[in-house]
Amino acid sequence: MATPQDAEIRKDMQTYYGKVLKKSTDLQTKVCVIAARPVPQHIQEALQNVHEEVSLRYYGCGLVIPECLENCWILDLGSGSGRDCYAFSQMVGEKGHVTRIDMTEGQVEISNKYIEYHMEKYGFQAPNVTFIHGYIEKLEESGIKNESYDTVVSNCVINLVPDKQQMLQEVYRVLKNGGELYFSDVYASLELPEEIRTHKVLWGDCRFVSATYRLFKLPKTGPTKKCQVIYNEGITGHEKELIFDANFTFKKDEAVEVDEETATILKNSRFAQDFLIRPDEEKLPTCGGCTALEVKDVITDPFELAGRSDSAESRSSLAVSGCYSTKKCS
Predict the structure, then answer these.
(1) Which residues have a Cβ under 8 Å from the Cβ of 226 and sit 6 or more positions away?
(2) Cα distance between residue 82 and residue 106, in whole Å
(3) How far is CA 83 from CA 52, 112, 165, 249, 298, in A?
């Protein structure tokens, strides 16, 4: 339940993101200014098609655009004036849909202002985007139905939510089985003192790491053993290899040994059609050999990821993956 302090925090954030900030260069911190991997050509083109005013009001944390989005229904939690949404709009196509919910009314107004501009530019007969003024921890109040989205994305927004557990439960509710929560955010190395947590600009003065997580809503039963998988090059922009996360890179026609959880993710998500999956004892035919990864090497902690990386570029741009439940991610 929201407290008076939560309401004050929301008011401060609405003022900061709706009135104080006019463009991305107005941001008063650089916590979310990170390096990124090279952007695939199709994503570059999609971003270039977004109206200038929308792009100028981008306040995200890196580039939060997952792969394999054709025909998907995407829910975007926050994201400024809608830059990512209009990029997603092109990627999902006319059979897909993008919904964005944001608590800042001024940002929603900017997003709605350019719907006709973008639909005409993309050659779509009808809009495939919807912008909602509301709270991301109260999706049901905004009419978001159960199991209605393939992917939920968030770009440096979850850290601003007072009740994160409620928000995660709501996202779990609206995801389809096999759906993904793909989010980038900042993480603090210690519990922040009250006077810092309530600061209107800075949430902390400790060590921060920016990282991307991809969490999948999976069935309770799945592969109980390691599997071997072969990527078949079917994903746009990732024909030669798919950098799935910090632990696994899948190259075309090369067998890779994956742990039980990753096998379950690939088998039950939108990625299933792009992989050949077999139990580890059933050796797959391959022209590139087999790459094995011990379970102990799988990284899930963002600070461990940063510590193991040799450069800021690599640690800021790779995701970590896992299962998703309303209680924990194992």
Answers:
(1) 257, 258, 259, 260, 263, 279, 280
(2) 12
(3) 9, 12, 27, 28, 33
Helix (H, G, I), strand (E, B) or coil at 131: strand
Mean pLDDT for 215-237 is: 87
Q: Cα torsion at 76, 79, 81, 86 (round to 10°)? A: -50
Q: Which residues contact 136 (CB under 8 A, 6 or more apart)?
A: 77, 78, 101, 103, 154, 157, 158, 161, 167, 170
According to DSSP, residue 16 is labeled I
Local structure of 256: helix, strand or coil:
strand
Q: What is the pLDDT of residues 269-310, one digit of tens each?
A: 999 999 999 987 776 665 455 554 444 467 788 888 777 654
- d(Cα 275, Cα 309) in Å, to the nearest integer? 28
In whole angstroms, what separates CA 59 from the centre of its chain?
Answer: 15
Cβ contact 156:83 at 8 Å: no
The token duo for 176 is 């389809």
Q: pTM of the predicted model, to two decimals?
A: 0.82
Spatial contact of 228 and 257, defined as CB atoms under 8 Å apart: yes
Whether residue 21 is predicted with pLDDT greater than 70 in this model: the reply is no
DSSP assignment of 47-114 equals: HHTS-HHHHHT---SS----S--TT-EEEEE--TTTHHHHHHHHHH-TTSEEEEEES-HHHHHHHHHT
Are 11 and 103 contacting, i.e. CB atoms less than 8 angstroms apart? no
Token readout for 326 is 């309303």
Both tokens assigned to 157:
């927004």
- Residues 68, 173: Cα–Cα separation, whole Å: 22
